[in-house]
Write a structure and sequence with these properties.
The protein has 237 residues and is mainly alpha-helical. The protein has seven helices and two strands; from the N terminus they run E-E-H-H-H-H-H-H-H. Strand 1 and strand 2 form a beta hairpin. The chain is globular and about 55 Å long.
Length: 237
């Protein structure tokens, strides 16, 4: 039983391998790109809109509301990145109902790549919000002695993101494989339905955790601005 799409080699040529992880990742991206293009190409602002547009608007508005609830201040700033993370992971997991498909999120290389994207996004958004010097100062707060611990914290939470998503998806694949050998008709159907719900939950959790890491920097920046404004007002009084 293959518990990871990395073990499924579709093409091998002169030491170069094309695994199911890469193929299914391309498939998910193609579905998202073509689907979004097909929906947005026929957007309507009138009273009559398509069901697909309504569904898209609901998904986007829900993601925006969740980002706003995190206290980031400007949901539109983070919506493209966080929304893309959620939709990719959700679509990758939903397609598990297709026979022969293996979710790329069941590969540690995929989940690690997603976690690295979050690792890069955190300083990018933070630097855009507070500047390079302001961001680097966060590593020596509240004291320069915290520098190594803050660096370890950045690395550990990235590792935790990758392992959490990989472990949950892989465990579902293992359980389904075991039940297929015991009861090949009844249990796998129930597990597939449960897997759909679990896949959506994992996509939600990953996106929320990514937003938590990004929003924490924004909240710190807002607090600094409020303190500066309060100090200026006190001095003026």
């Amino acid at each position: 039983m293959e518990i990871s799409p990395d073990a499924w080699v579709l093409i091998e040529w002169r030491g170069w391998q094309l695994t199911a992880t890469v193929v299914f990742t391309w498939l998910v991206m193609a579905i998202l790109v073509l689907g979004s293009w097909a929906i947005t190409a026929r957007l309507s602002e009138g009273e009559t809109v398509s069901r697909w547009q309504v569904m898209l608007e609901v998904v986007v508005s829900r993601i925006r509301d969740q980002i706003d609830d995190m206290g980031s201040g400007d949901p539109e700033r983070y919506l493209p990145f966080v929304g893309t993370l959620f939709l990719f992971i959700a679509m990758a997991n939903i397609l598990m109902i297709v026979p022969g498909y293996q979710p790329p999120t069941g590969s540690l290389s995929t989940t690690a790549a997603l976690a690295i994207c979050v690792l890069i996004a955190v300083p990018v958004f933070s630097i855009g919000q507070r500047g390079l010097v302001g961001y680097l100062k966060t590593y020596i707060r509240p004291t320069p002695l915290m520098l190594p611990f803050n660096i370890i914290s950045e690395a550990s939470r990235t590792l935790a993101l990758a392992i959490r998503l990989y472990g949950n998806v892989m465990s579902g694949t293992v359980i389904v494989g075991i039940l297929i050998s015991v009861a090949p008709f009844f249990f796998p159907i129930l597990l597939q339905l449960l897997g759909l719900l679990t896949g959506l939950i994992q996509a939600y959790i990953f996106a929320i955790l990514a937003m938590v890491y990004i929003a924490s920097a924004s909240r710190e920046r807002s607090s600094e601005q409020d303190d500066s404004a309060q100090n200026s007002q006190d001095q003026g009084d």
